[in-house]
Automatic annotation (TrEMBL):
SMART domains: CH, SPEC. It comes from the Eukaryota. GO terms for molecular function: actin binding. This is Alpha-actinin-2. Residues 436-463 form a coiled coil. PANTHER family: SPECTRIN/FILAMIN RELATED CYTOSKELETAL PROTEIN. Keywords: Actin-binding, Coiled coil, Repeat. Residues 28-133, 142-248 form the Calponin-homology (CH) domain. The keyword Coiled coil applies. Transmembrane segments: none annotated.
Amino acid sequence: MADEVDRPYAGQEGEINDKLVLDLAWERQQKKTFTAWCNSHLRKLGIQIKELDTDFRDGLNLLKLLEIIAGEKLPPAEKRGKMRVHKIANVGKALSFIASKGVKLAGIGSEEIVDGNLKMTLGMIWTIILRFAIQDISVEELSAKEGLLLWCQRKTAPYKNVNVHNFHMSFKDGLAFCALIHRHRPELIDYDSLKKGDDMHNLNLAFEVAEKHLDIPKMLDAEDLHNTPKPDERAVMTYVSSYYHAFSSSARAEQAAKRIGKVLNVNQENERMMQEYETMASDLLEWIQRTMPWLNDRSPEKNLTEAQEKLEEFRQYGTATKPPKSDEKAKLEAHFHTLQTKLRLSSRPAYVPSEGKLVSNISAAWKTLEEAEKEKEEFLRSELRRLQRLELLAAKFDAKASKVELWAAGKDEALVVTEDIDSSNLAEIMALDKIHETFQSDIDAENNRIAQLEALAQELSDYQYYHADDVNARMQVRQWEKG
């Protein structure tokens, strides 16, 4: 490539006949191709040139072309005018800029361009094309012309009747152009229907498709390629480089689109995970809130059966209801940390859950739940012990009360002084007194049992025995203490 750039346009071409550069057919091909190439860039500013040897003479369009293809701001042009000195100055600025990019312009001067020397102008444009359209092409450590040739070979290798080994005869029948298009946009050309030897059809098809669908200007004429024994290498290389840049730009755009799509997918996934976290946190907190009143319920049970049922209900909660919720909590925390990792890897800000739904909020609520569970279990077991004791006390009270009641049965008659007793009958009075003395002796003997009964009744009352009213009622029926 260095040889291509370093030599003057009219220099030697190695083994190629040095007089070919003067060939009018080549000159015509180059002029048409280079003009189309320049216009493909100048159109961005709404400028179109018609004649290379005249439209670049004042240097204004040349400076604009270089600014577009280099993406840099060049020194301002001299006053727009027809003075030769201004034109030479403008072209000189353009040539100096080209030289600053490492391109040698031996033999090409400002005066020749200003004077409309076509060969020098073509040589200048070729050096620009080499530097800005071909030099940066790189394929597997090969660059410029060799890299572009390797790219063509790799892309067209699978196609029949295509053997790219140069930039003149290998493209003469048009199949190489069609293969390049088909390789990247197979829907545009039915390659299998093409015939070798039908050069004009193949060339025109490729040029028309490239211009219409790929925005590649038609830089060559099918007639010129078909009728010229050996097409101009520079013209063909310039046109093929447009294919390379068009497809490379498309590939980069596709890769960029994929990257953007990937970013969008990552963002959507992150958003989905955020929403999922919010839902999981809300559900878990809601369950905790629904469960807390039940755990905090300390209503005493009425009997041992109910206490046992409540304790069994609590056991079911601990073995069946709570474990899935524990799993949900673990998944929630893992979900949160995974989300934060994804956000960090994608350089996104850390996720902050809604108010009250932080991981710390969940942990605090869970801790409160477990404390309530512990207190609930202690209460239920305490209730069970209380009711078990009450059942024993009630049974003991019933046994003792029954004995006392059995003893007291039939004693009422002995305690009643009827009108039938003759108060003057000393014998009856003494008999009655004897009965009372005997009864009093029995009561004295029963005092210990009655004291125990009272103690049992009091204990049943203290422990909130649900039949405490019945116990108290039995205790009120103590006629044996009267008399």
